[in-house]
TrEMBL record:
Source species taxonomy: Bacteria, Bacillati, Actinomycetota, Actinomycetes, Pseudonocardiales
A single BP term in Gene Ontology: uracil salvage
Binding residues for 5-phospho-alpha-D-ribose 1-diphosphate: 77, 102, 129-137, 198
EC number: 2.4.2.9
Domain Phosphoribosyltransferase: 6-205
Organism in which the protein naturally occurs: Labedaea rhizosphaerae
Signal peptide: none
Name of the protein described by the UniProt record: Uracil phosphoribosyltransferase
Binding site for uracil: 192, 197-199
Coiled-coil positions: none
InterPro entries: PRTase-like, PRTase_dom, Upp_B, UPRT, UPRTase/APRTase
Cofactors demanded by this protein: Mg(2+)
PANTHER family registered for this protein in UniProt: ADENINE PHOSPHORIBOSYLTRANSFERASE, URACIL PHOSPHORIBOSYLTRANSFERASE, CHLOROPLASTIC
């Protein structure tokens, strides 16, 4: 699996704000918004473009448009905090939604929402979820997408645990990962260490 850990001082600085237990919900959301812009920017680096000649007020030149904008799929709740910023960067993108809650005992994802286009053949998909922990939620989401014909999926995550990366690698699913950090490990409760806690709760409050 292709894994890109974006190594940049601005990425590290936003992530530090998110990791800090003293950061309040609003500041956490703002840092995730800014981090998302940087991760999506990197994820789009290799996106195909279509060119067309145009006139500036001064001369003729080449213009560039995205040839095949990705479908954006935030995984609720926590991925909602990445959706608007990704959409601002790629205004032509369509958006789908998946809602999952991880069972605190079994660590398995429980689905509660799915709103996706019927067919995804030939369409790149960006899954937006700040956390790749065991990898169960991401695997579930990608299987929904491949079931509709997707063959080109990018997981965009603020943090990834080595266990989650290994899980996706073993799954054989067609996915690449763009992340701000590969952390040390999971703890006994399935939380990423050092991590940032529960990304949904840190944005919206505990449920
Ligand atoms: O890799 P995994 O072990 O599956 O864990 C990762 C999942 O856990 C978090 O969601 P959570 O279930 O806490 O839901 P929430 O976004 O509503 O808080 C996170 O946003 C991922 O979706
Ligand atoms: O550390 C973790 C692991 C799963 N989900 C989170 O929100 N945080
Ligand atoms: Mg949560």
């Amino acid at each position: 699996m292709d894994v890109l850990a974006v190594d940049h001082p601005l990425v590290k600085a936003r992530l530090t704000v998110m990791r800090d237990a003293r950061t309040d919900n609003a500041t956490f959301r703002a840092a995730l918004h800014e981090l998302t812009v940087m991760l999506v920017y990197e994820a789009m680096r290799t996106a195909p473009v279509r060119t067309e000649r145009l006139h500036t007020p001064v001369a003729r030149t080449e213009g560039y448009w995205l040839a095949n904008p990705p479908l954006l799929v935030p995984v609720l709740r926590a991925g909602l905090g990445m959706a608007d910023q990704a959409h601002k960067l790629i205004p032509d993108a369509q958006m789908g939604f998946v809602g999952l809650a991880r069972d605190e005992e079994t660590l398995k994802p429980t689905p509660y929402m799915e709103s996706l286009p019927e067919t995804l053949a030939g369409r790149p998909v960006f899954v937006l979820d700040p956390m790749l922990a065991t990898g169960g939620s991401m695997e579930y989401t990608i299987r929904l997408l491949t079931g509709r014909g997707a063959t080109d999926v990018t997981a965009i995550c603020a943090l990834a645990a080595p266990e989650g990366i290994e899980h996706l690698e073993k799954s054989g699913l067609p996915v690449r990962l763009v992340t701000a950090s590969i952390d040390e490990r999971l703890n006994d409760s399935g939380f990423i260490v050092p991590g940032l806690g529960d990304a949904g709760d840190r944005q919206y409050g505990a449920v």
